[in-house]
Amino acid sequence: MSNNSANILDIKNIEVMYDNVILALHDVSLKVPKGKVVALLGANGAGKSTTLKAVSTMLASERGKVTKGSIDYDGTSIDKQNPSQMVGLGMVQVLEGRRCFGHLTVEENIISGAYSRKLSKGDINQELEKIYTYFIRLKERRKSQAAFTSGGEQQMIAVARAMMAKPKMLLLDEPTMGLAPQLVAEIFNIVKELNQKEGVSILLAEQNTNVALKNSDYGYIIETGRVMLDGTAESLLNNEQVKELYLGISKKGRKNFRDVLKEESLTKKKIN
Amino acid sequence: MVEELLFFMEVLVGGLLAGTMYSLVALGFVLIFKASATFNFSQGAMVFFSVLAFCGFMQDFNIPFVLAFILAALLMVVVGLCTERFVLRPLMNASEDTVLMATIGLGYVLEGLAQAAWGVEVRRLDLGIGDFPVPWIADNLKLFISALDITAGVVAAIMIIGLFLLFKYTKIGLGLRAVADDAGAASSIGIPLKHIMLLVWSAAGVVALVAGCMWGARAGVQFALVDLALKALPVLIIGGFSSIPGAIIGGLIIGAVEKVLEVYIGPFFGGAIEGWAPYVLAIFFLLYRPEGLFGEKIIRRV
Asked: What is the pTM of this model?
C-alpha cells in the first residue's frame, strides 16, 4: 500500500512499557514528513531510544511493548512487523553506540547491510562504490578490522551499513555520542548529504541539541516519556526555554553549570 | 634408540589423528556457541541420535550407505528446524542460562527419541574402513597407524575447510559472523536471526553425524557416545569456545597429549589415564588462560 500523505512516519500517542511494569513512554506523538530531517531531543532516559526502537520494532527483543497509540510507516501500521521486515520495507535503525561487527572488516560490515536485498556480486560492488563516495574515509580503511577503527569511523561504518539496505527512512540513535566536535560536524555533513541526494527521511535522536537542530528541519523535545515542546528547528533554536535548558544560553548571555551554582549559593546566602 | 623414537612417533601420530575426532565433535559446539553464545549440552545426544538414525536406515530398512547418510543428514536438518521453531524461537529474549538449560532438556529428548525409534542395543557400524594399521605405511615408514584414524583426519580436514569457505565467502556465512559479533545490530540491518539459527543447528547436526560415524565405527554405536562427546569440553577450554581453529587445535592437543601420557605415564597410575588426563589439562588452562588459546572472550557460561 503506497502512501500519498506528506508524512512517511506518523506516531500517535504511544505508550511503551518494559517487562509489563516499567512505563518508559507516557504519551509521544510525532511526525516525520517525507524527505525531511526531524530531531528528537532530550536528556538521558527521556525516552529517545525507546521511541526509535518502538518504530523499528526492536522493542520486542528488549521485552518492551507499545501498549497504547499507533505507529504508521508509509501509510501502514507497523503493528505486526519484525525488525527484518521493517528493513525490507525501507526503515533501518542505526543503534546507539555504533555496534559495528568488530571481527569483520570495514567492507564486510558495509556489505552485511545489503543482506536483506537480493543483489548480485556486481550490484553489491556498484552499491559499495556509491556508498564510498559519501564515506571517503572508509574506502581507505576497507580492509581493516572494524574493531580497530576510531569511534568516528565506526559511526560512519554503522551509517554506511544501514545505507546499504537502501532505506527510505533512517533512524539514527545518538550518532555523535562521544565524538570530537570536528567529527560531529563531519557526521552531520554526511547525514545532510544522504538526506538531500538520496532523499532519505531521517529521525534523529540527539543530546547534542545545538548541532542537531542546526541540521534538522523540525524538532521535538521529550522529557520523561512525554513530548514537551515541538516546532521548526529555527523556532526551537530561538525559543527562550530551549536556549536556557538545553543550549545553556539565557537572556543574560551564556550560562553554564558553574553560573547556576553561583546563583544558588548567592540566594542561599541571602536567605541566611 | 631409533625404535623408541619410531614408537613415540607412532603414539603421537595416532594421538593426533584420534584428536581430529575430538575436533569434529568440538566443531559442533563452536558453531552453536558462535551464533547463540550458549554451550549446547545436547551436542552429545545429537551425535548419538544422528549416527543411530544412520545405522537404523541402513540396517533396519536396507537403505544403501550413501542414501542412508544423506537421509540422516536431512534428518539432522529437520532436528535443527524443530529446535529453532520449538525451543529457540520461544526463548528468543530469554537469558543465555535459560537457553543452556533448554539444551540439556533437548539432549534428553533426543536420547529418548533415538532409543525409542531404533532400540537400545549396541550396533556395529561398518564403514568399510578397518581399525587396523595401514600396511603401506607400516612397511615403508615403520609406523603402525590405523586406517580409521587416517580417514578421520582427512574427513575432519575436509569438513573444516568446507566450513571455513562457507563462513568466509558466502552471504549466509557473513550473516553468521555478523550475528556472532552482535546479534542485536545484525537484526537491526535485517539479518533474520532465525535463518542463521537454522543454519548453525543444521550444520552442527551434520557435523555431529560425521563425528558419530567415526566414533561409532571405532567403539560401536551406543549410548556411551553421548558422554564421549563431553570430551569436547576440555578441547573447547583449551582451544577457546568461539574459535573454529581453536576447536581443531584443541582437539589435536587433547588427542596427542592423552595418548602420550597414557603410554609413558599411565603405567605409574595403573593405566587408563586417558579418561581424566584431558580434564586435568583443562583445569590448568582454566587457571592460567581461561579464554583458551584462540578464544575471543572469557568463558562465562559453563
From this structure: 0.81
